[in-house]
Amino acid sequence: MGKSKNGGSDASDKQQPAPLTSDSKTADRSFAAYPVPSKLAASSSTPYQRNSWLTSVDGPAMAVLTVLCAVTRLYQIGKRATVTWDESHFGKFGAYYLNRTFYHDVHPPLAKMLIGFSEFLAGHNGTFNFKGDYPSYVNYKFMRMFTAMFGIGLAPLAYLTCLQLNMSRKMCTLAALFVILDNGLCVMSRFILLDEPLLFFTAASLCSIAGFQNSRHKAFSCAWWRWLLLTGASLGCVSSSKWVGFLAVALVGLYTIEELFNMYTEFVPVKTVAKHFIARVVGLIAVPLVIYLACFKIHFTVLNKTGPGDATMPPAFQARLRGSPLSSQPFEIMYGSELNLRSMHPGSGLLHSHPHKYPEGSQQQQITCYGHKDSNNNFVLVKPAGQEFNYTAEPLVAVRDGDIVRLQHKQTKAMLHSHRAHKAPITTRDFEVTAYGKPQWKDPNNDWRIEIVKEESTVQDKNLHTITTQFRLRHAKIGCLLTAAAVKLPSWGFRQTEVSCSPANNLNAPASLWVVEKHINKRVPSVDMRPRVRSSFLRDFVRLNIEMARSNNALVPDHDKYNHLESGPITWPFLVYPMRMLGSWKKGDIKYYEIGNPVLWWSSTLACLLFPLQLAYYAARRMRGCSDWASPEEELHFWNVSKLLWGGWALHYLPFFLMGRVTYIHHYLPALYFALLFLAFQIDQFSKRWFGGKLATGIQFVWALVAVSVFYWFAPLTFGIYRWLPTWNIYKDPFAL
Amino acid sequence: MVVASYVRLWRLSNPGNVVFDEVHFGKFAGKYINGTYFFDVHPPLAKMMFAAAGKIAGYDGVFDFKSIGLDYAAAGVPYVGMRLMPALLGLAMVPITYITLAALGHAADACALGALVIAFENALLTQSRLILLDSALIFFTGLTIMFWALFFTEAHRPFSNRWWTYLLLTGANLGNALSCKWVGLFLVATIGIWTLKDLWEKLGDLSISPVQYTKHFVARAIGLIIVPVTVYLFWFQVHFMALHKSGDGNAFMSPEFQNSLDGVTLGHTPRDIYYGARIRIRHDATNAGYLHSHLSNYETGSKQQQITLYGFRDDNNYWTITRTEADEEKFQNSSDPTALQQIKDGDIVRLMHWRTHRRLHSHDERPPVTTNDYQNEVSGYGWEGFKGDSNDHWRVQILEGDSSVPESKTKLMAIYSKFRLVHVNQRCALFSNRKKLPKWGHEQVEVTCMKSAKFPKTLWRIETNQNERTPVNAPLAEYTRPGLIAKVLEATRVMWRVNNGLTKSHPYESRPTTWPWMRRGMAFWGSGDRGIYLMGTPILWWTSFVAIVAFAVIQAVLFLRDCRGMHDRLLGVRERYFESVGFLAIGWVLHWIPFFLMGRQLFLHHYLPALWLAVCAMIGSLDLFTRRMSRKVRQVLMAVLLLLVVRMYFQYSHIAYGTPWTRQGCERSKWLGSWDYDCKRYMDLDVKPAPPVPTVAAPNLGDPIAVTIASAPAKNPEDPPAAENVDLLEHENKLNEPAPHIDQDRLNSNADRLNEEMKKASPPSLRLPVVSLAEQAEALAKKLAA
């Protein structure tokens, strides 16, 4: 917490701000007035502008809170020596960084790399695949403790944040207590998961933006820059942990827009506004972006061996992975070669056929695109019918741009075929593509023209090459282009991708571009592909992000099926469907139950739901010329705190309603963090406004006591002893048949 | 007005064929006249207006508007009368525009200009000449905006008679617009936002006391909430009264709803279900029909007999509900083996298909369509005399009962009990999700057994209960008759669901982004050397869009300057500009932006209400910004605009009215390459007159699209298939239509044979009387009378 101390000394320098008019002509000076009304600038001792905010009390207070939090998070952390909850995913992903094989997941890499780092520290060699019980050589306790540290960090961060928001120390303590005493946050901090880093970086973003807000009167000072850069760094980390982190980015973005706009309306000179703007571009856009990119750079650098995630990336990337079958292949494609063709459209896959017919249209054999690699993806490139050619004896002939060729499916011997007579099953503006006919038939509907679009290797000889040549396949008779645009076929097509022949002639659409991913020809010597394929970090980065988004969107639930893990966002704040964190729920098992502290959840929800009404009430009162505030500073303080806390809650909660993918109750935890802090603030507001004095303190104390006892009541989450709502499936699942 | 009448009514009889969506709306008018219930995705008012117009003109409801291109004259349909209705409504837009602009505080010359350009606007013109709903929608939208503007002219005399009149008329027309198409909701939003703004400003006006403020609030709540809702309900009431007979729309609705139509008698069946009863089971959530089986097998999985949902009542929907084998034995050995035993919650039962003697069966096989691993296939298995196996066992789990008969929660009762059938071995529940089986399944709806299913789609109800041993005075069960509100809610729900399902692509659909600059029109109809293509007057579309953008930019600049303490007066018209053009621009935004959120297919004509608002905004801006200019300049500007509009009206009138044109004129008029009306159909001036175009339609090919194509001289694949509802309802109708009939005779004869055999073989306690349906109904009627 060294930074905080510095912040304190900075602040004390400004103990006696000079009156506005007498300031010298520095850039800072003109901005010193913003946004505190000029009355306020003269007296620094108002309770809403704490100048020296870290006193001797705060250090010990934070230490005590941290210890308390650590006790709740670490108590019996290793009790269940079995892979628990999503440890099976994230522990495994962490291990990939140790054995350096390339994998695919929907989340950005930072948090998983941290887990990998903890596994490295714990001495794991990357061989355990996180299924079943932990073997003796895996120090799972250390790994859990490592991620739990992020969870523990929430408590001092909450205290510090409230301090930065100029709440009283009592309230800071209460807020931190709420964070410590929430069973939901607690149980999610006890395993090897991404949630702890996510929560920690979210809290860090909030803390640093609050600090930034608090230092707004010292623009461009050291403390100001430090908070700005810390905000940027936290935002970079949070969005590199999970994409939910972009919601924190949105919060800071909106805050910044409001701040700049206020400056504009406060008559700050345009030049100064521009300086502020540029500083924020650097701190809040450039810094996070660099961190996000750096995480992916490390990800690509560490994971340099072939692994389970290969197939999601383009062949040029795969060929560069060590041990990949694609890295050593024949380069020059000849007639008679056996090829796997990949569509350049993300998510389409490899050209595929299988002995199943279309149920409609021509009812000929299906042609699809399929992500998995198997022998049904092999097509032999042959000459058009009538051109006799002995592919095993005659000298090899290279395939050139403009050649007319046929593609024969290796397993079924049928030819890649299209015809005008039938429309494609889903994309009805295109023609159907089938596998049809015998090699000796002179059917012009089997002929395709090769049109080379781009050659990425240095060999620019207009010949077709493995991986490096992007080309189109144009139907020689109809003139349409072979297209696979990641459109899924129904169950008769095994939900593989539809392949059609598009007459639209979109020359550069990736869906109509193909590359040879794998090339088999015994007569052509294999060469090392790695120096021939082009590598571009940015291209891989963009592609991987697209694939992550695609996998993420594919996680769509069946709305008719009851799944005891899933719950809709509308149910979260009311804690309707807590979640069993184990698959088996038998008597005698050690069980973990993701249930929050109901009192805290319900009261924080109430506080958040009341806020819009509160705002409307104050606005309407103001329209009628009534004021509810003792001073403009009090009102400003109310707005400054609630916009960050309530805004953070709303931004971390409401977007889930728009998401099509499956949602779980722990998706609410970041929003809950904001809600808990906001709850402390609202308790403060209400008790002061209505009761004041000792009674207010009493209420706050009672609240803390209730939170403690409820936490204690639910503390044996592992055993589950009571339920308050009939939908809590601790004992019996109401939907079980 | 004279000019406008001429422009709008000229050659209304052309073309004398069914054009575009007249297919639907003409047909619906006929249904009103016949009184048979139908289903459509739009609320009823506009359609009822067509029905009224048709009735007055003498349409008898016989002609069925089956496909685009059918000849009206030949069928003796008074289509001119029917088209006159929207044309007159379109005509009324001319004075409405004038009054609206005047009420918004614009000068008389600007109002006249606005009225004239609206009269000459080609898209509004084309749309209002055909039997389409949009004309009525635009008319009511215009009326609402007009009365709302007039309401504000009375703002200084609140609660006066006129003030009330305008407020209530606004509300009534809001209700009317909403009863034409749900696009009226955007109008509700427009008026709502402006009301909130107005009330907010009044809140700041300290001269208004709290009591007075409450009066203002209540008045608006009455005028703008209660009145529109009442009007909406009123039109639905008229709709339900007009459509009192059962018709092809039945299948969309719940049995309760159907029960309120003439000619439908659902229910009226003995209430208590005893073992041995012959029952018909309806799937509760989807209205897709009854649990059904027939003598065809699955082509996948177990290849056993199919179990489906079927929407129509036939004998293949009958199931006999019996005990399990062990229970039956126990029962036979009990003291009174002939006693009637009622089925209770938790009982384990077996269901035997009455015709084919297969038992409802499930096992660890994947269903044909829904192949998820938590779904099991449901089949009919067994043969006559087969004792059955444990995979035929289903547990009855009653989840909901009827509040009027509390026992229906514990004892199985026809109609009242909503229950699940839980397969005992597989622990899955009988389920259906409106998925259709392939051709071999006769395109009926798939039934599966789903593990961990949520409740709604696993709920079933017994609709028919036949048992010869039912005591004479046994209580009967019947569906409740829903009240108006329940009916409207249900109709609204179904409309919403079907509306959202309209996602198929259509050759002339367009996304909202392309509307303001009119990237592409829509071909409505084409035949010979004439064609109708919906396209606006380009200059009006473009300038009106520019006017809106200009408003937004000017307001933004003014706001930013205000923030820095620079308060512009904007030639002294700033307040008026915001109150008038601002209102119209917000209306425009609310009639345009929400379309972006819609996943369903959209068409250019959805933009027309927004276009009218935009044109008014444009004329308003023109008026305000030319006030300080000299009279002459102002008049010249206005004249130029009018001349341009009229010039373009003439240029594009050929495709609006469907009159012959020349190929050169047509080609010249294509300013954007994406305007894809067909110029090849027109006569080429450079070429000698072509041989006479065949005017007789080619033989009907059975396909509505094919008919239009066949009658065009050159084969033109771009001719539109009937838009909107065809595609939309196709899916739904197919679901509800009698699925292509399987060889019922064969099945029935087979079943009859089996039935005979069963009668001979089955033990007396299980034997069922083969009472014909008519007899049964008669008996029931007698019972009822008693």
Automatic annotation (TrEMBL), chain A:
Region Disordered: start-end pairs: 1-29
Residue stretches spanning the membrane: 142-162, 174-192, 198-215, 227-257, 277-296, 599-620, 664-683, 695-715
Q: Where is the composition biased (Polar residues)?
A: 1-24
By its UniProt entry, which SMART domains does this protein fall under? MIR
- UniProt cross-references to Gene3D superfamilies, sorted A to Z: 2.80.10.50
Q: Which InterPro entries match?
A: ArnT-like_N, MIR_dom_sf, MIR_motif, PMT-like, PMT_4TMC
Note the SUPFAM superfamilies from the entry: MIR domain
Looking up Pfam families in the UniProt record yields: MIR (PF02815), PMT (PF02366), PMT_4TMC (PF16192)
Q: Which GO terms describe its molecular function?
A: dolichyl-phosphate-mannose-protein mannosyltransferase activity
Subcellular localization is given as: Endoplasmic reticulum membrane
Q: What is its EC number?
A: 2.4.1.109
Q: What is catalyzed by this enzyme?
A: a di-trans,poly-cis-dolichyl beta-D-mannosyl phosphate + L-seryl-[protein] = 3-O-(alpha-D-mannosyl)-L-seryl-[protein] + a di-trans,poly-cis-dolichyl phosphate + H(+); a di-trans,poly-cis-dolichyl beta-D-mannosyl phosphate + L-threonyl-[protein] = 3-O-(alpha-D-mannosyl)-L-threonyl-[protein] + a di-trans,poly-cis-dolichyl phosphate + H(+)
Q: Keywords assigned by UniProt?
A: Endoplasmic reticulum, Glycosyltransferase, Membrane, Repeat, Transferase, Transmembrane, Transmembrane helix
This protein's membrane topology, according to the annotation, is: Multi-pass membrane protein
Q: Tell me the pathway.
A: Protein modification; protein glycosylation
Q: Could you tell me which CDD domains the record lists for this protein?
A: beta-trefoil_MIR_PMT2-like
So what family is this one in? Belongs to the glycosyltransferase 39 family.
PANTHER family under this entry? DOLICHYL-PHOSPHATE-MANNOSE--PROTEIN MANNOSYLTRANSFERASE (PTHR10050), PROTEIN O-MANNOSYL-TRANSFERASE 2 (PTHR10050:SF46)
**What functional role does this protein have?**
Transfers mannose from Dol-P-mannose to Ser or Thr residues on proteins.
Descriptive protein name:
Dolichyl-phosphate-mannose--protein mannosyltransferase
- In its UniProt entry, the species of origin is given as Linderina pennispora
UniProtKB/TrEMBL annotation, chain B:
GO MF annotation, one: dolichyl-phosphate-mannose-protein mannosyltransferase activity
**Pathway it works in:** Protein modification; protein glycosylation
Task: Give an example GO cellular component term for this record.
Answer: endoplasmic reticulum membrane
**Which InterPro entries has this protein been placed in?**
ArnT-like_N, MIR_dom_sf, MIR_motif, PMT-like, PMT_4TMC
Question: Which terms are listed as keywords in the entry?
Answer: Endoplasmic reticulum, Glycoprotein, Glycosyltransferase, Membrane, Repeat, Transferase, Transmembrane, Transmembrane helix
Q: Which Gene3D superfamilies match?
A: 2.80.10.50
Chief location bin: endoplasmic reticulum
Q: What is its EC number?
A: 2.4.1.109
Top class in the EC scheme: transferase
List the catalysed reactions: a di-trans,poly-cis-dolichyl beta-D-mannosyl phosphate + L-seryl-[protein] = 3-O-(alpha-D-mannosyl)-L-seryl-[protein] + a di-trans,poly-cis-dolichyl phosphate + H(+); a di-trans,poly-cis-dolichyl beta-D-mannosyl phosphate + L-threonyl-[protein] = 3-O-(alpha-D-mannosyl)-L-threonyl-[protein] + a di-trans,poly-cis-dolichyl phosphate + H(+)
Localization, per the record, is:
Endoplasmic reticulum membrane
Superkingdom field: Eukaryota
Q: Where is the MIR domain?
A: 270-324, 340-399, 410-465
Record SUPFAM superfamilies = MIR domain
Per the record, membrane topology reads: Multi-pass membrane protein
Role this protein plays: Transfers mannose from Dol-P-mannose to Ser or Thr residues on proteins.
Q: What family is this?
A: Belongs to the glycosyltransferase 39 family.
Q: What is this protein called?
A: Dolichyl-phosphate-mannose--protein mannosyltransferase
> What is the organism of origin for this protein?
Linderina pennispora
